[in-house]
Amino acid sequence: MVALNQDVAETMIQIPIQIVPDMPDRIIAATALYLKLPLVTCDSKIQAAPLTTIW
Fold first, then answer.
1. Do residues 33 and 51 make contact, with C-beta atoms less than 8 angstroms apart?
2. pLDDT at 2
3. What is 2-53 written as a DSSP string?
4. What's the pLDDT tens digit per position in 14-51?
5. Are 39 and 29 in contact (CB under 8 A)?
6. Predicted local confidence at residue 24, as pLDDT
7. CA separation for the pair 2, 21 (Å, rounded)
8. Three-state DSSP class for 54?
9. Inter-residue contact 26 to 11 (CB < 8 Å)
10. What CA dihedral angle connects 43, 48, 54 and 55, to 10 degrees?
11. Beta-carbon neighbour count of residue 46 at 10 Å?
């Protein structure tokens, strides 16, 4: 588990709201991006964001 902290919140700026409009999805995507980890998801909106996804 990773806490939502200021660093993750600031990373959310890199997840375009037009591509990933749902706040929980943006937080998950930003957390993966901040931790420099790929995100396992079949969500096409998150897959379109500028981060590495696996599925």
1. yes
2. 86
3. ----HHHHHHGGGS-TTT---HHHHHHHHHHHHHT--EE---HHHHTSSS-E
4. 999 999 999 999 999 999 999 999 999 999 999 999 99
5. yes
6. 96
7. 21
8. strand
9. no
10. 50
11. 21
Query: Tokens 């806490």 identify what position?
Result: 3
Is residue 10 very low, low, confident or very high in pLDDT (cuts 50, 70, 90)? very high
Interatomic CA distance for residues 49 and 18, integer angstroms: 10
Core vs surface per residue 12-23: b (16+ CB within 10 A) or e: beebeeebbeee
Dihedral (CA of 21, 11, 29, 45) sign: positive
> Token pair of 37, please?
């980890």
Rg (CA), the chain: 10
DSSP bridge partners of 53:
39
